[in-house]
Write a structure and sequence with these properties.
The complex is a heterodimer of chains A (63) and B (653).
Chain A (H helix, E strand, L loop, with lengths): L4 H13 L4 H15 L5 H14 L8
Chain B lengths: L2 E9 L6 E4 L1 E2 L2 E2 L2 E5 L6 H13 L7 H5 L10 E10 L2 E10 L4 E8 L4 E4 L5 H4 L4 H7 E3 L2 H4 L7 H9 L3 H17 L8 H49 L5 H31 L2 H4 L1 H16 L7 H8 L13 H11 L5 H19 L8 H32 L2 H27 L14 H61 L7 E4 L3 E3 L7 H16 L7 E5 L7 H14 L2 E6 L4 H11 L3 E8 L8 H4 L4 E3 L3 E5 L1 H6 L6
Helix pairs in contact in B: 1-4, 7-17, 8-16, 8-17, 9-15, 11-14, 17-18, 18-19, 19-20
The chains are: A mainly alpha (63), B alpha+beta (653).
């Protein structure tokens, strides 16, 4: 089941504003979509969270 | 997604056992009016309808489940079944509340998706539309539409969040926050400042290690060079000192004497060390004790090499040596205990010990060396060596003194080099020493510095990991917050346009527009509106929202016209058929006036059902009921048709 198109657009724009790559939006949207379909176990949530956090690029440690 | 409500069936609850059909041929009836007098269990029926569709009852506790029990005619369980049609396919949920064990159980039947399944298991495609929040938006009471325009309820925002699933973003945020809390448990330093501090310390330690390592390398190189220089100088000094002078001869012979004495000292030392390793030589008391041990072993006649064999043989006897009969129990006990007595290995050891004591202690060998004498000899040799060294030093000084300026220069340089080498060796020893107990960054000890460096690196790694997680979690939360704000704004803007378009048609004669949608709906150019206008806007908003993305849902409204004046009822009755594909109104007879007539004139076809409980008071209704199409159960009646619907005149049971 697809998500509300405005929700998808909002996630894509927010990810872009945060200077993150499109893969972050892709992973968050996949997570939202699976939750929306009601087929998410505890292990799935942990995996989605890990994938989403891993895809985020942080430069805070460079300075 | 097109969800239609085909009907429901109730059995064993507070509300009457009835089956309600909302079909028109093979499809959901576009408009259905279900008339139930107050007190018949309308609220119970609506709550069960919501719970059966949304799966929420599994979270109910036992006391809540007991609330649905039939108080008139107790049954150990109640079964509520909802028949849906999703995109033309049937989908059935059956909820069973067991009043005995207080449990709620579901069965889902979906021929197009998995058949019969235990539990509440809608197909994934329909799952999001059947969550409790979502279901509350299409099964509600007549006052809900009014609340959409009141800021204090925030119903408009809640509706948008539910229908567009914005609450899922909040769930992601909660999970991200949990990760951060877990990652920082039991860690004192979590900040960038803390990381910078430990990084600076680590850099200092590394710098110090590099400096000390470099200095050590240089010191070793210097030592080698200086030692080589010293050897050269020593050679030159030797060559420069008068070889034939008497003083030189005296020096050389004394040097030879010193050499010989050193050899003697080495031999004496070996002798002393050899004796020190024999404890019986060190003290007479030790000798006496060993002699006593040997004596005691002899008195005790130990070792008795055959002791173990003795017990083994004893076990084969019929009578013990004490005269008692050798029973099985006695044999078992003796067999067990015999293991504690001496075996061959222990006997062998004791025999060897006794022989050693005889040989080493008891035999008094007059030719064997005496430790005290050897130590005395060593002492006098060392004393002699000291004297010779002093003499050699004096002779050497004299030889130098008698030499020329060049020799004196050599000697001075030689001494300076010697001091320098000592100094460098002390430094290297300090650098190579074992780790110190306390950490201090100005230490010369490389082992300590390396230990400090490892600890600082470990901390950096730990804090870096923590800060990395924090940065990621913060970014994710920020994305979620921004997404939520953006999605709400986009959906509100889109809904405002859609609603205003529909309102132009719906309120054709009395146009009204939505200015903005925040927590509630804000009307354009006016602070208030009539009840009819308010409800019209509320229903329009709700149905527009429900139908976003081309989705269709049944609108099930409890008492849709009850709080309204006749005039407003007419407006709402006219509005409803144009808003949704399926409308189910649960009414009482007094709502018919204005509302039903208006609805009738605007809907193509209406499905009428009247439900009442079978009681002594309703017995009188039965003869008339028999003349209409009806379904009767043990405690309730459902009568179909417009005639009976309008004929029924009972607001309270």
């Amino acid at each position: 089941m697809s998500l509300d198109k405005e929700l998808e657009q909002a996630v894509i724009e927010a990810v872009e504003e945060e200077g993150q790559s499109a893969s972050v939006a892709k992973r968050i949207l996949h997570w939202l979509s699976e939750m929306s379909n009601g087929q998410v176990s505890r292990a799935d949530i942990d995996e989605f969270l890990k994938l989403s956090l891993d895809s985020i690029n942080v430069d805070c440690l460079e300075d | 997604m097109d969800i239609g409500l085909l009907g429901w069936c109730s059995e064993g609850f507070r509300c009457p056992d009835v089956k309600v059909d909302l079909v028109d041929g093979a499809f959901p009836s576009k408009v259905s009016l279900v008339q139930m007098p107050n007190g018949t269990g309308k609220t119970t029926m609506l709550n069960l309808l919501r719970a059966t569709m949304s799966g929420v009852a599994t979270s109910w506790d036992s006391s809540k489940i007991q609330d649905y029990k039939n108080i008139y005619d107790y049954s150990e369980k109640g079964v509520f079944t909802v028949f849906l049609q999703v995109d033309g396919q049937p989908l059935t949920f059956e909820l069973t509340l067991n009043f005995e064990d207080g449990a709620a159980r579901y069965v889902t039947t979906s021929p197009g998706s998995g058949g019969i399944k235990k539990g509440w298991a809608p197909p994934p495609s329909v799952h999001r539309f059947l969550t409790p929040n979502f279901v509350d938006l299409f099964i509600f009471d007549g006052e809900f539409a009014d609340r959409l325009l009141k800021d204090e309820y925030s119903e408009a925002e809640k509706a948008i969040d539910s229908l567009c699933q914005l609450y899922l973003l909040e769930e992601i945020k909660d999970e991200a926050t949990l990760v951060w809390e877990k990652a920082t448990q039991n860690k004192s330093t979590k900040t960038k400042q803390g990381l910078n501090k430990i990084k600076k310390r680590h850099a200092k330690i590394v710098k110090r290690i590099n400096e000390i390592s470099k200095a050590r390398k240089q010191a070793k190189r210097d030592i080698r060079e200086l030692e080589s220089e010293a050897t050269e100088l020593k050679k030159k000094i030797d060559e420069s000192i008068g070889k034939t002078s008497k003083l030189r001869e005296k020096y050389d012979s004394t040097k030879e004497e010193e050499h010989q004495l050193e050899k003697d000292i080495e031999l004496s030392l070996q002798g002393v060390m050899g004796l020190i390793r024999q404890p019986q030589v060190l003290t007479n008391q030790f000798c006496a004790d060993l002699k006593e041990l040997k004596h005691q072993l002899d008195v005790l006649k130990l070792p008795e090499s055959t002791s173990k064999q003795f017990f083994t043989e004893l076990l084969t006897e019929e009578v013990c040596i004490c005269g008692r009969p050798m029973t099985e129990a006695a044999k078992a006990e003796i067999g067990k205990k015999s293991k504690a007595y001496l075996g061959d290995e222990v006997s062998g050891f004791l025999n060897a010990l006794k022989a050693d004591i005889d040989m080493m202690v008891l035999e008094d060998d007059p030719s064997s060396p005496n430790l005290e004498e050897l130590i005395e000899d060593l002492d006098s040799s060392l004393l002699e060596k000291g004297k010779i060294e002093s003499l050699l030093r004096a002779l050497w000084d004299q030889l130098i003194k008698d030499g020329d300026d060049q020799l004196k220069l050599y000697e001075k340089k030689y001494e300076e080099i010697g001091l320098k080498i000592e100094e460098l060796k002390e430094f290297v020893a300090l650098v190579d020493a074992d780790s110190e107990e306390y950490d201090r960054i100005d230490t010369f000890c490389l082992k300590s510095l390396r230990k400090m460096e490892r600890e600082a690196a470990r901390k950096i790694s730990e804090i870096t990991g923590t800060i990395d997680v924090k940065a990621r979690v913060d970014t994710l939360i920020s994305i979620v917050d921004k997404s939520l704000a953006k999605a709400r704004e986009l959906i509100r803007d889109d809904l405002t346009v859609t609603c205003n378009e529909r309102l132009k048609t719906v309120l054709e004669r009395n146009p009204l527009q939505i200015d903005s949608i925040k927590n509630s709906l804000k009307l354009k150019n006016q602070s208030g509106a009539s009840v009819g206008q308010t409800l019209s806007v509320g229903y329009t908003f709700l149905t527009s929202l429900l139908h976003r993305g081309q989705h269709q849902f049944p609108l099930v409204v409890d008492s849709p016209a009850n709080p309204l004046s006749n005039e407003v009822r007419k407006e709402i009755g006219k509005l409803i058929p144009s808003l949704c594909n399926q409308f189910v109104g649960l009414t009482i007879s007094s709502e018919r006036v204005g509302f039903v007539t208006s609805l009738e004139s605007n809907a193509e076809k209406i499905n009428y059902v009247t439900i009442f409980r079978k009681t002594d008071g309703t017995k009188a209704l039965m003869p008339e009921v028999e003349r209409h199409e009806h379904v009767e159960s043990g405690n309730g009646v459902a009568v179909s048709g417009k005639d009976y619907y309008f004929m029924f005149d009972m607001d309270e049971e």
